[in-house]
Request: fold
Amino acid sequence: MLPDLAALRLLADIARLGSIGAAGRASGISQQSASERLRAMETETGLVLVQRAQRGSELTDAGRLLVEWSSDLLIRADEIENALETLRHTRSHELRVHASMTTAEYLLPGWLIRLRQVRQVSVSLRAANSEEVVAAVRRGDADLGFVEGPVDLDGLSTAVVGTDELVLVASPADVWARRRAPLDAAELAGRALTCRERGSGTRAVVSSALRSAGQLLAQPEIELATNAAILAAVRAGGSPAFVSRRAAAAELSRGVLVAVPTVGLDLTREFRAGWVGRARPPAGPVRDLLAIARTG
Reply:
């Protein structure tokens, strides 16, 4: 059997330093552990590799050949180890985040400011819909993804970092803005709305809520890719739209949009973070940002 890298390094150090004890110290292990590792290597190879003497140890012919044959392997292993260390150092100072629109626009800016207060890290942030975020994390293009609403997160470790509520908003001139009775699912399904594109968490929540009430979302009047575009379209007289209450707060407070009451629909959703790997987030900026997100 081929000895492992640690055993091969020990044998090379015995040849270089002249004793098992010195080679063990170079590897950070005791002389007893070095001797046990050497005996295991000789058992694996079926060869006597070292001759012990009063003044030290020297390699047998077989030992010298094994050191010679493995020298290129050990050099390459050292290069890979150094490259991995460089990669770990880089990853500890860089963070690639993909997030769905509401999280990217209204939550992550504050979280990232707090992250910079506790860790010097370079962060790249890309806003996309929830399905695109999950795909980026799975491909390795993002270290951490934030999504909202129902989305397939199979294969990723996840954590809930907050909750949100959707609200139906309309222009003050819209016929629904003057309603006093809440809209039910059938009334909502009967009108083409201003909607986010397919794959967005917002649209998925609305579709799921209507299905649970026995209705289907009508073909949208218009599909737009950002909260800002949705709000602008509704302000301009477009059909009503469901958006995050966070996204509509400023327009609602100024009266340029009106919240239309609904009934019989569950319009709450969770903000979730997802990453590749074990349930415990990797140490470094990923874990730090998640801790910040959980505390709001």
